[in-house]
Batch of 2 targets.
Target 1
Amino acid sequence: MKTAIVFENVTKSYPIYHHITSGFKNLLLNLPKALREMKSQSFTAIEAISFSIQKGETVAFLGKNGAGKSTTLGLIAGVIRPNEGQVNILGRVSPLLELGGGFHGDLTGIENIQLNGVLLGLSRKQVAEKINSIVEFSELGDFINQPVRTYSSGMMARLGFSVVAHLDPEILLIDEVLAVGDAGFQRKCVAKMQEFKQQGVTIILVTHSSADVERLCDRVIWIENHRIKMDGPTQQVLPIYNSSNG
Amino acid sequence: MTKFSHTIDMTIELLRKEFRVRYKQLALGYVWSIASPLTYAALYYFVFKMIFEVKTPNYPLFLVAGLFPWQWLTNSISAGAMTFYGNASLIKKTLFPRYLISLVVAVQDMIHFIVSLPIIIAMILFMDVKMTGAWLWALPALLIIQFAITYSLNLLTATINLFFRDLERLVQLAMTFLFYMTPVLYAETMIPDRFRHLIIIHPIAPLIISWRHLFLGEPIQMAYLASSFVWASALLLVSQYTYNKLQWRFAEVL
């Protein structure tokens, strides 16, 4: 087995930026204090987290809002960097699949597919070849030519998942997207993810749905208070997680 | 697929997005992009020619020759505040080179300038000003220099504005200040002698003066061209350095 993702003692804290964003006047009036606070005040999103994920594993990150799941996903995607520790990623990472993230409201579904496909690593030619299949997968019908701002959250999720499903990723990141689709589309997504899984794609899922975790994931990493509380096979971790959050 | 060809593909798609978004909301996008400098030109003509009675010959062409490049400059720089904020979801979600968004803003404003050139040429022909051979080399040279300056200033504003939001207001003030401190409404020859030697180190004036020399059929001065080239290179370096230092924190602050 090859390793796909390694976190070694990873800590990520965000400086609290409001001292700068609160304005020029405040900054000037309290300059020494503001500078000191900018350095000292920070919010720790994850603290000394270590794990390693093998190629082809399907792993769910569970935990309350604000526990640090999305930060972990952001670190895997490479859009943020750790303050301490090492993050090693081996393979092409698909983006964070977040509801409506990355879409422009004034562009139509088709236009968003063209933009997103290219930004997510495909060439324009590849997007042109795949676009019919993406549209078909989304089942959005005539809405595909409507501006995305007219979409419901479920339609947005359809569009997002349809693009990602055609990316040919090695590591797939999925953040809270299955929750909003209707049952039919959810089944389709799960089927697609199982297909990816069989092809050996590493899948990272962030969700609140125990059902999805049970259907898809081999392993659960439970994050609480910015640290790993439990890490192990789904059938072992999930019941304990459910009983403590039920 | 090479990295370079993918960068080109991303630039094309981002540019298409900018045009779609802009023209969907403003169906008369092209008209607006020339209406604004022309309106200002008419206004300044009234104030300075009719009321102050300036002696500058061909004053309407003189105004347009300075105002069109100025409009390009000020549009790109004012857009800086929103360049990254307006694309927050893309930046937070994916890992494409963020500077491309700035590049696309600068390209789009350059295209607007180029498509407004026929208006200037029509005025040149109408007013019987001669079009010199300098058009062949000075036009592309000035386009490239101004493109580098607008891109750099947009990138710099966009980057710093993420960490210091009040920059937006400072930039607005600075642009108004710079407008009157740049010979757009008046000729550089009207500047008192004791200040005139400073023009050569002015960041924008040599560029605007060179555009005007070109459009008014006067000889291009190499010293001015060289000065704006030096400014363009310096701004490119400074903005790229700042961007490289801060870009990995963009997703955190958005």
Note: Residues 183-198 of chain A form the longest helix (16 residues).
Target 2
Amino acid sequence: MSTSAPVDVLFVLFAAGAIATAYLVFRTDSMVRAAYWLLASFVGVGAILVLLKAEFVGLVLMLMMAGEMTIMAFVMVMFMMNPAGLNPMLMVHQHKTAIAAGVTSFLVLAGAALLTDFPNAPATQTSRATEELGTELLGESMLVFETAGAALLGTMVGAVAVASRRGRYGDAEEGSIEPPLQPDEEWAQASAHRTEEDEHEPSVHGGHS
Amino acid sequence: MSRVLSRIALRADARVFCIAGSQSRDEARLLRLAEGIHLTGTPRAANVLLIAGELDAGLIAPALVAHDALSPPRATVWWRLDTEEALVSKNFPNAFMEDDLDPVPALRRVHEELLAGQREGEAPLLPDVEPAQWQGIGPYGQGGKGMTGGVPYGRPMAERADDRDGLKLDYLPVRIGPLFAPLPVGLALDVKLQGDVIQGAAFENLADASTDGTSIFHRALRVAVLIRDLELARARSHLEWLSDAVAVAGAASLSERILRLAQQVAPGDGDAIRAVERTLRRRGFFDWSMRGVGVLKTNALEGVSGPVARASGLSIDARTKEAAYERLGFEPLTQDAGDAAARWIQRVREAAQALDLAGQAGDERTGGSGAIESPRGLLTDGAGPSTATARLVPSLVVGMEFGEAVATVVSLDLDMSEAQPLDNHVSAAS
Amino acid sequence: MRPYLSPPLAVITMIGVLIAGSYAVAVLEEIAGTLVSRRPLRLTYVFWAPLATAALLLTQGRTSTERPDAQAWALAPALLAGLAAVGLAVIPIDQNTSVADPAAGFVLYSAAISYVMVAVYLHGWSANSTLPLIGAYRFIAQAFAFQIPFLLVLLAPALPAESLAISDIVEAQESLWNVVRQPLGLPIFLVVSAAATFSLPLDFPDAADLAGGTSSEVSASHRLAWRGARAGLLVMVAAMGASAFLGGWQGPWLPGWLWVILKTLLLLVILIASSHTFARLRIERFVVLAWVVLLPLSLVNIFFAGALLL
């Protein structure tokens, strides 16, 4: 396999960076830092994919991980205020199991990497990697995948709609009412109860649960 | 290199963080129009602290904290505005005293001296220490039992509480104010935040009770004044409020234009104000920004008067009882919606109406009866309208997103020095 | 393969573009503010003010909050400026000149946009202070709302080009600019751009009702870096708009690079003028707008762009 020296140097840098930042995930006491160290590690892996001429896959990996890690950090900080930086927190649980699992999977993967006989087929400069990848992944089933994609997007929008303030169980400001388990009466009762309460409410607009 | 930078920096506007006493906020507001200085929303962006007038006792401690947050080299200017008490000079010993009517030259001078190295930057006024000793307990030293709670740094940590969706999640207790620029001077909101949603609220009034207001409305409690002057002052007050509110809504340049208009309007200029209303509507301030925010129903308005009440449909106005206004054909305006947009529209329309009235009033006089309709509502001897309005705040902001809560409080046009006497803590929770 | 600038020249170009772009944004901001507030326009002041302010911020000392995450705090503006540089790098300067023009240029640009979220979140969170934290929360809601329409509306110009490389997208507009071919594209792009650069009327994380939000606790050089990075971000989206919808370097008489600059400036003027024109939406309204209006519209846009090709 022939690669140029700068590419080799970059590969070593990114690989070392990915491993170092992955290690730091477990050494920090803050959720946000842990999430973003993990992101840094993924960026290293993405960069290696780019070096391997899998530009599209590498960049998409980076793109997706930015959103995912941010959601992780954000939801943890927003809904578990405690680790918002002020209060240190131990990020590692079940030490022995975790170490054993980590070491085992590393050995298995490293063994597979060393023992497998990989084909030597260097990518050419002119290869249209994106197009080939698309054909490889989707091939004949383009329509199926696109339909699934649109359906997933629809589901996502639906989920947002359900969770939004004016959700399907009524305005969140009024307090949401769960659907009844049996048809009719209970829902009606719950609603009647709500309205009655609202009449007595001296103040106004604003969420009451 | 740094000398070159300083030379270039001389051309910059002085960055001024202004803390106004509750009696000086009108004077301080006008500094937004001044050239050569720029008022910042946070002390960290400023290098000069301007204290306008005498500070209320409750504002001294926050002002000291703000002083230390200024970017060094820093300096303090005290714009005295005819005050005599010496709380400021006692607490800010290095403050440069300015007795002039216009503080801008002094601010520029201090700014330039700081840059030229002719004036030494002030040292922090408070010791740089933890507010409390680290008191970590619990399995990971995080300060409380389990994973939450405790006071590891002397301030309360997140606690579990119900939220509006019936989940049990952590909330964070924080204090907003009393120097938080968008809120009225002296209002400190203690809120329980869950994300950016307010789950519980209480407030403390840190402004000193105003013993004797100096405005024309206070004067009109005792003596008869020209309706022309009174209505012009009302229109100005509404426009100045509008300028503040527009600035909080992000439109600094439009806010400046409205503030300049407030200084220039004369009796009979109602059309100029109606043009402002059209501008605001076209730009979406009513429909995009404020519609549906902070709705006040009439049954919640106990004791509330003024534009806030009228924007919710209550047609109460002390002016209807006065013969002079009757002769001018005065009819109170009302809105139905009761939201922040309605309160904005109400004040803009009342400003236009006030200028129309002022234009027609001639030599008519009013006042002296001990009760007057001030821009914020019914003013009597010893009681201002903000007392009742301020009481609405805690229950109103619970359940709101933070920005919505700020917009709601702004739309109430509170004057905390007038909101006295008031039991200092008023609270509500979800 | 198109010819690239040599690495040293590319670095110098990027730094120059970022600085000149931020300066242009600051001057345009100053002019727009002066016109809207009806102050007399003093041109020397307008052109000096950004430089003088920058110099002032550089002479000042930095202050810190109580126990911030100092490294992450310092990283945030650098990350944001770096993202602006990455995004700008994929945009061709002229027909035969570009800093970097990878086959997946569109994906790289989109990745840069999605890391804006990381930068803003870090900036707000690491100050360890309430108002910046709330600003950070707001931007997450904002980012997830604008990102899908942003990607979709930029993907549509890639369809007629049948390529994800920006230079191919520009070249495909030789006969007809995308602003005409996809009439929904540019308006949607401008709205989501205002959101992506968190400038008014969608400046939720750094809003005045948070006293500056994520930047409310930063001082001196840090403040300058953040403002500069934000301005760079604005240039980055304007330059992309110019290339994806206004035909990039294409145009008569003038050299290509000048067309790129002029079109970018035009979009900057539109973005800055609207930031001084419209009232800030409420965050909740914006999120609804993005999911309920912008997302379906950008799907319609991409559908028609695809249908035109069949």
Note: The longest helix of chain B spans residues 227-248.
